[in-house]
Design goal:
- There is one protein chain.
- The protein has about 350 residues and is of the alpha/beta class.
- It has a single domain, classed as Alpha-Beta Barrel (TIM Barrel), CATH 3.20.20.70.
- About 45% of the residues lie in helices and about 15% in strands.
- The chain contains 13 helices and 13 strands.
- Strands 3-4-7-8-9-10-12-13 form an eight-stranded parallel beta barrel, surrounded by five helices. It has a three-stranded antiparallel β-sheet with strand order 5-6-11, covered by helices on one side.
- Strand 7, helix 6 and strand 8 form a beta-alpha-beta unit.
- Helix 6 runs parallel beside helix 7 and helix 11 crosses helix 13.
- The radius of gyration is 19 Å and the shape is globular.
């Protein structure tokens, strides 16, 4: 119960600065062997009932951390210690980019929500590939079973008609370094990016990646992350295209540009904040609706990773009961603290 007290202090400071401060301190703690082992022992839930075989991969538990938290694959060791079953790094772009102007991350504590307009800030695919190589070398020595996904996108300066080349570059560079890929065309924070969710644009990107993928000796699972703001017709196009290009999975959903789910207090605050993707509790209902529609439309034939409004074990179970194969947290981590994976796993074991 100590985290709410710590959170109240941390919430007095800039969200992005707090993120780096907290992860740096966790990194420092994990560099001390006995502290690392103590944290891992307290926050990891070892129970065979939690393990799942999905996407041709073995997940030690179904609770993952969504893309955007560890954009640069800088904290995989620390996130492994916190007991997640999988971590999605990125979004990674071919060239390094600074992202949008600060401030670009905002809290709406009354609604347990965040608004972000980060803009794919990352170190670029070459630097991130080197970090992943170091991680995989360490992984081979320690035998950790953490699954790592690579979330890939396009640089802001790349025109949409050339976007497929950016995804191609990231896919080729990261192929031997990650366990699965997620194509991100659904962030609202890169101008024009969501236009790539239209069927023809998306088909060009995904077909090219699958052509590369299927030529490999051991193809990697290829997933698509979608927005919660798509119409029924657009969701139908996604379902159709998923079968056409033989996608291995979907991630539902990214952040929303809608503000309607917010309380009056948060709506007023969001007006002063301006543009950005909304995540957290207000997204829970809509993301579950999209999940249920996709599960029905794909007839359970395409695994779906559920994301959006997951804070507790009950939230995770709601997604799993709705047909999700796995779940991802992000905003819930900020509000619930470093024990979120443990708490969700303990709840699931008891069901």
């Amino acid at each position: 119960m100590i985290y709410p007290l710590i959170r109240n202090i941390l919430f007095q400071f800039d969200p992005e600065a707090v993120h780096h401060f907290a992860m740096h301190n966790l990194e420092t703690a994990c560099n001390v062997g006995f502290i690392r082992n103590t944290i891992k022992r307290k926050l990891s839930v070892q129970d065979s009932s939690l393990s799942k075989d999905v996407l041709g991969l073995h997940f030690r538990n179904p609770v993952g951390l969504g893309a955007g938290f560890d954009k640069n694959a800088a904290y995989l060791n620390e996130l492994d210690v916190l007991g997640f079953g999988f971590v999605e790094i990125g979004t990674v772009t071919p060239k390094p980019q600074a992202g949008n102007d600060k401030p670009r991350l905002f809290r709406l504590p009354q609604d347990k929500a965040l608004i972000n307009r980060m803009g794919f800030n990352n170190d670029g695919v070459e630097v991130i590939r080197k970090r992943l190589d170091n991680w995989n070398n360490q992984k081979a020595r320690t035998g950790t079973s953490l699954i790592v996904g690579g979330n890939i996108g396009k640089n802001k300066v790349t025109p949409n008609e050339e976007a497929w080349k950016d995804y191609d570059t990231c896919f080729r560079h990261l192929f031997d370094a990650v366990d699965y890929f997620v194509v991100n065309v659904s962030s609202p924070n890169t101008p024009g990016l969501r236009e790539l969710q239209e069927k023809d644009s998306l088909k060009k990107i995904l077909s090219n990646l699958q052509e590369i993928n299927q030529a490999k000796r051991a193809p990697k699972p290829l997933l698509l992350k979608i927005a919660p703001d798509l119409t029924t017709s657009q969701l139908d196009d996604i379902i159709s295209l998923s079968f056409e290009v033989q996608l291995n999975g979907l991630v539902a959903t990214n952040t929303t540009i809608a503000r309607a789910p917010l309380s009056a207090v948060s709506i007023k605050k969001s007006e002063s904040i301006g543009a950005g993707g909304l995540s957290g509790k207000p997204l829970q209902q809509r993301s579950t609706e999209v999940l249920e529609y996709l599960v029905k439309g794909t007839a359970h034939k395409i695994p779906i990773i559920a994301s959006g409004g997951i804070f507790t074990g009950a939230d995770a179970k709601e997604k799993l009961d709705a047909g999700a194969a796995l779940v991802q947290v992000w905003t819930g981590f900020i509000y619930e603290g470093p024990a979120i994976a443990r708490n969700i796993c303990k709840y699931l074991v008891q069901q």
